[in-house]
Amino acid sequence: MEFFEVLRKRRSIRRFQDKKVPGELVEKLLKAAFLSPSSYNKRPWHFIVVDDKEKLWRLSKAKLGASGLATAPLAIVVTADGEKSDVWIEDASIAAEHIHLAAVALGLGSFWVQIRNRMHNEEKSAEEYVRELLDIPENYRVLCIIGVGYPAENKPPHGEEIFEWGKVSYNRFGMPFEK
Ligand SMILES: Cc1cc2nc3c(=O)[nH]c(=O)nc-3n(C[C@H](O)[C@H](O)[C@H](O)COP(=O)(O)O)c2cc1C
Protein backbone atom coordinates (compact mmCIF):
# COMPACT_ATOMS: atom_id res chain seq x y z
CA MET A 1 0.00 0.00 0.00
CA GLU A 2 1.31 3.42 -0.95
CA PHE A 3 2.30 5.51 2.08
CA PHE A 4 -0.24 8.30 1.51
CA GLU A 5 -2.99 5.71 1.17
CA VAL A 6 -1.94 4.26 4.53
CA LEU A 7 -2.22 7.73 6.05
CA ARG A 8 -5.69 8.30 4.61
CA LYS A 9 -6.93 4.86 5.59
CA ARG A 10 -5.74 5.15 9.18
CA ARG A 11 -8.84 5.40 11.32
CA SER A 12 -9.42 4.55 14.96
CA ILE A 13 -10.82 1.04 14.99
CA ARG A 14 -12.30 0.07 18.33
CA ARG A 15 -14.21 -3.14 17.53
CA PHE A 16 -12.41 -6.28 16.49
CA GLN A 17 -13.08 -9.73 15.10
CA ASP A 18 -12.43 -12.71 17.34
CA LYS A 19 -9.29 -13.60 15.39
CA LYS A 20 -5.70 -13.79 16.60
CA VAL A 21 -3.06 -11.51 15.11
CA PRO A 22 -0.37 -13.85 13.67
CA GLY A 23 3.04 -13.74 15.33
CA GLU A 24 4.79 -12.48 12.21
CA LEU A 25 2.49 -9.44 12.09
CA VAL A 26 3.08 -8.73 15.79
CA GLU A 27 6.79 -8.81 15.02
CA LYS A 28 6.29 -6.34 12.15
CA LEU A 29 4.35 -3.95 14.38
CA LEU A 30 7.22 -4.01 16.86
CA LYS A 31 9.78 -3.53 14.08
CA ALA A 32 7.81 -0.45 12.97
CA ALA A 33 8.07 0.90 16.52
CA PHE A 34 11.82 0.25 16.67
CA LEU A 35 12.27 2.15 13.40
CA SER A 36 11.18 5.37 15.15
CA PRO A 37 13.50 8.32 15.57
CA SER A 38 14.29 9.36 19.14
CA SER A 39 15.98 12.32 20.76
CA TYR A 40 19.78 11.82 20.98
CA ASN A 41 18.98 8.32 19.72
CA LYS A 42 18.33 7.30 23.34
CA ARG A 43 15.55 4.90 22.37
CA PRO A 44 14.03 4.94 25.89
CA TRP A 45 10.97 2.86 25.05
CA HIS A 46 9.78 -0.55 26.22
CA PHE A 47 6.78 -2.28 24.64
CA ILE A 48 4.58 -4.80 26.41
CA VAL A 49 2.74 -7.20 24.10
CA VAL A 50 -0.50 -8.36 25.71
CA ASP A 51 -2.64 -11.14 24.24
CA ASP A 52 -3.88 -12.68 27.47
CA LYS A 53 -7.69 -12.32 27.38
CA GLU A 54 -8.02 -11.67 31.11
CA LYS A 55 -5.34 -8.95 31.00
CA LEU A 56 -6.91 -7.36 27.92
CA TRP A 57 -10.23 -7.25 29.72
CA ARG A 58 -8.59 -5.62 32.74
CA LEU A 59 -6.83 -3.11 30.48
CA SER A 60 -10.24 -2.23 29.00
CA LYS A 61 -11.19 -1.05 32.50
CA ALA A 62 -8.13 1.22 32.83
CA LYS A 63 -10.22 4.34 32.13
CA LEU A 64 -13.14 5.66 30.10
CA GLY A 65 -12.38 5.26 26.42
CA ALA A 66 -10.47 1.99 26.83
CA SER A 67 -13.43 -0.36 26.49
CA GLY A 68 -12.50 -1.32 22.90
CA LEU A 69 -9.60 -3.29 24.37
CA ALA A 70 -12.10 -5.88 25.61
CA THR A 71 -12.60 -7.19 22.04
CA ALA A 72 -9.02 -6.62 20.89
CA PRO A 73 -6.96 -9.80 20.50
CA LEU A 74 -3.80 -7.77 21.02
CA ALA A 75 -2.60 -4.68 22.82
CA ILE A 76 0.81 -3.08 22.75
CA VAL A 77 1.46 -1.01 25.84
CA VAL A 78 3.88 1.77 25.03
CA THR A 79 6.17 2.76 27.88
CA ALA A 80 9.45 4.63 28.11
CA ASP A 81 12.15 5.15 30.71
CA GLY A 82 11.43 8.63 32.04
CA GLU A 83 14.86 8.71 33.71
CA LYS A 84 16.63 8.02 30.45
CA SER A 85 15.09 10.82 28.41
CA ASP A 86 13.52 14.18 29.24
CA VAL A 87 11.48 13.92 26.04
CA TRP A 88 10.26 10.35 26.52
CA ILE A 89 6.72 11.49 25.69
CA GLU A 90 7.72 12.53 22.19
CA ASP A 91 9.85 9.42 21.66
CA ALA A 92 7.09 7.09 22.84
CA SER A 93 4.40 8.97 20.86
CA ILE A 94 6.27 8.55 17.61
CA ALA A 95 6.74 4.83 18.29
CA ALA A 96 3.03 4.48 19.10
CA GLU A 97 2.06 6.21 15.85
CA HIS A 98 4.43 3.97 13.88
CA ILE A 99 2.54 0.96 15.31
CA HIS A 100 -0.82 2.61 14.52
CA LEU A 101 0.20 3.24 10.88
CA ALA A 102 1.94 -0.11 10.37
CA ALA A 103 -1.29 -1.82 11.44
CA VAL A 104 -3.09 -0.23 8.45
CA ALA A 105 -0.40 -1.38 6.03
CA LEU A 106 -0.73 -4.92 7.41
CA GLY A 107 -4.53 -5.02 6.97
CA LEU A 108 -5.18 -4.58 10.69
CA GLY A 109 -7.08 -1.94 12.63
CA SER A 110 -5.94 -0.22 15.79
CA PHE A 111 -6.69 2.59 18.19
CA TRP A 112 -4.81 4.68 20.71
CA VAL A 113 -5.83 4.54 24.35
CA GLN A 114 -4.33 7.46 26.23
CA ILE A 115 -2.97 6.46 29.64
CA ARG A 116 -0.61 9.27 30.65
CA ASN A 117 -2.45 12.11 32.42
CA ARG A 118 -5.69 10.12 32.65
CA MET A 119 -7.45 8.77 35.72
CA HIS A 120 -8.69 5.24 36.42
CA ASN A 121 -10.99 6.56 39.14
CA GLU A 122 -10.98 9.47 41.59
CA GLU A 123 -8.02 8.08 43.54
CA LYS A 124 -5.92 6.17 41.07
CA SER A 125 -4.30 7.27 37.83
CA ALA A 126 -4.72 5.09 34.76
CA GLU A 127 -0.93 4.87 34.66
CA GLU A 128 -0.79 3.41 38.18
CA TYR A 129 -3.57 0.96 37.30
CA VAL A 130 -1.66 -0.31 34.23
CA ARG A 131 1.66 -0.32 36.13
CA GLU A 132 0.23 -2.57 38.85
CA LEU A 133 -1.52 -4.86 36.37
CA LEU A 134 1.61 -5.44 34.25
CA ASP A 135 4.37 -5.08 36.92
CA ILE A 136 5.93 -2.09 35.17
CA PRO A 137 8.98 -0.69 37.03
CA GLU A 138 8.62 2.82 38.54
CA ASN A 139 11.08 4.49 36.16
CA TYR A 140 9.06 3.38 33.13
CA ARG A 141 6.25 5.78 32.28
CA VAL A 142 3.15 4.52 30.51
CA LEU A 143 2.15 6.69 27.57
CA CYS A 144 -0.63 4.76 25.86
CA ILE A 145 -1.94 1.41 24.76
CA ILE A 146 -2.46 0.56 21.11
CA GLY A 147 -5.31 -1.93 20.74
CA VAL A 148 -4.88 -4.02 17.57
CA GLY A 149 -6.83 -6.62 15.63
CA TYR A 150 -8.82 -7.40 12.51
CA PRO A 151 -11.51 -4.71 12.21
CA ALA A 152 -15.14 -5.51 13.01
CA GLU A 153 -16.18 -2.02 11.92
CA ASN A 154 -15.85 -0.30 8.59
CA LYS A 155 -14.70 3.30 8.56
CA PRO A 156 -14.15 5.29 5.38
CA PRO A 157 -10.70 6.71 4.69
CA HIS A 158 -10.30 10.39 5.50
CA GLY A 159 -11.53 12.69 2.74
CA GLU A 160 -10.56 16.17 1.57
CA GLU A 161 -12.19 17.82 4.62
CA ILE A 162 -9.29 16.65 6.77
CA PHE A 163 -6.95 19.11 5.06
CA GLU A 164 -7.40 22.25 7.12
CA TRP A 165 -5.56 24.78 5.01
CA GLY A 166 -6.66 27.58 7.33
CA LYS A 167 -4.32 26.09 9.91
CA VAL A 168 -1.29 26.79 7.75
CA SER A 169 0.49 30.14 7.63
CA TYR A 170 2.99 31.39 5.11
CA ASN A 171 6.23 33.01 6.33
CA ARG A 172 4.45 34.60 9.31
CA PHE A 173 1.70 33.34 11.60
CA GLY A 174 -1.68 34.41 10.21
CA MET A 175 -0.52 34.99 6.64
CA PRO A 176 -2.60 32.71 4.40
CA PHE A 177 -0.80 29.89 2.68
CA GLU A 178 -1.77 29.63 -0.98
CA LYS A 179 -1.58 26.10 -2.32
C1 LIG B 1 -3.09 11.44 22.09
C2 LIG B 1 -4.31 10.64 21.69
C3 LIG B 1 -5.12 10.11 22.66
C4 LIG B 1 -6.24 9.35 22.31
N1 LIG B 1 -6.94 8.73 23.29
C5 LIG B 1 -7.95 7.89 22.95
C6 LIG B 1 -8.58 7.11 23.96
O1 LIG B 1 -8.21 7.13 25.13
N2 LIG B 1 -9.58 6.29 23.58
C7 LIG B 1 -10.00 6.20 22.27
O2 LIG B 1 -10.93 5.44 21.99
N3 LIG B 1 -9.40 6.93 21.29
C8 LIG B 1 -8.38 7.75 21.60
N4 LIG B 1 -7.71 8.46 20.61
C9 LIG B 1 -8.17 8.37 19.21
C10 LIG B 1 -8.88 9.66 18.77
O3 LIG B 1 -10.15 9.74 19.39
C11 LIG B 1 -9.01 9.65 17.23
O4 LIG B 1 -7.73 9.61 16.67
C12 LIG B 1 -9.78 10.85 16.69
O5 LIG B 1 -11.11 10.83 17.14
C13 LIG B 1 -9.77 10.92 15.16
O6 LIG B 1 -10.35 9.76 14.59
P1 LIG B 1 -9.49 8.83 13.58
O7 LIG B 1 -8.33 8.26 14.40
O8 LIG B 1 -10.41 7.75 13.11
O9 LIG B 1 -8.96 9.67 12.48
C14 LIG B 1 -6.60 9.19 20.95
C15 LIG B 1 -5.77 9.77 19.97
C16 LIG B 1 -4.63 10.45 20.32
C17 LIG B 1 -3.72 10.99 19.25
TrEMBL record:
It holds the Pfam family Nitroreductase. Residues 7-64 form the Nitroreductase domain. Its cofactor is FMN. CDD domains: nitroreductase. It comes from the Archaea. Keywords: Flavoprotein, FMN, Oxidoreductase. InterPro entries: Nitroreductase (IPR029479), Nitroreductase-like (IPR000415). GO terms for molecular function: oxidoreductase activity. Belongs to the nitroreductase family. This is NAD(P)H oxidase. It comes from Thermococcus onnurineus (strain NA1).
